[in-house]
Amino acid sequence: MKIGIFGGTFNPIHYGHLRAAEEIAEKFLDRVIFVPTNITSNKNIDAEAHPQKRLEMAEIAIKGEPKFKVSDIEIQRGGFSYSYDTIIEFKKKYKNDDLYFITGADAFLGLKNWKNAEAILKTIDFIVAGRPKYGFKNLVKLIDFLPDKLKRDAEVDLKERKIVIDEKRAVYFLDTTKLDISSTAIRNNFKNNISNLFLLPNDVINYIIKNKLYESK
Ligand code: NAP
Prior knowledge:
Number of strands: 8
Strand order of the largest sheet: 3-2-1-4-5-8-7-6
Strand content: 15-25%
Bound molecules: NADP nicotinamide-adenine-dinucleotide phosphate
CATH architecture: 3-Layer(aba) Sandwich
Number of domains: 1
CATH class: Alpha Beta
Largest sheet: 8 strands, mixed
Number of helices: 10
Order of helices and strands: EHEHEHHEHHEHHEEEHH
Structural class: alpha/beta
CATH topology: Rossmann fold
Helix content: 25-40%
């Protein structure tokens, strides 16, 4: 089976995430596993809902869609959530499946600063979803965002819209429908009593209201 690991803070999960996952699955995958972080090393954790609550929101959001699953692997592991550790754990668990790591464009542009970035790209294929600000017109330029040691051998395959890392690994780019939805804007809307209807699933909105998440302090 072809399985995509979709890591994120998901604070909260919204239709931008869900639609990107849907389009990526349609083109590449049999299953997408959403993996909410425990502690995200690069974010302001004061603004984050508790990991368990972010996990529950993801579970609510994917209900009824059998190809979508949620994993608590990072929350169970505790501490900072490094994608490298997650990828290694998934590789052990899904020995007979083809695994891919899914990110948005912003996350990909910062990838070379992740823990073990080079090893990550040599371990798993990536699928990068386009975002409103980034078209992937110039794949050659995107090689600059790879860890230094991988740049020299990386090659662009324009036909398949991918950067080939080595004989085994590649980074695929897919321009997904450009839904300019952000978790930060959604949280601000909740704080300021502005409607979030149609930006994320209603059941997630109801969960946020019931659990008093993202209220102004
Ligand atoms: P996030 O804000 O929760 O979003 C999850 C993913 O969905 C991101 O890749 C994001 O892309 C994408 N996304 C958000 N809104 C979207 C929209 N409207 N349309 C399409 N895609 C959208 O993610 P995050 O907190 O940046 O974390 C991303 C992953 O990278 C996590 O698994 C995190 O652990 C990992 N990470 C790992 C390290 C490390 O290992 N050292 C460091 C940093 C991040 P954008 O990034 O483009 O918003």
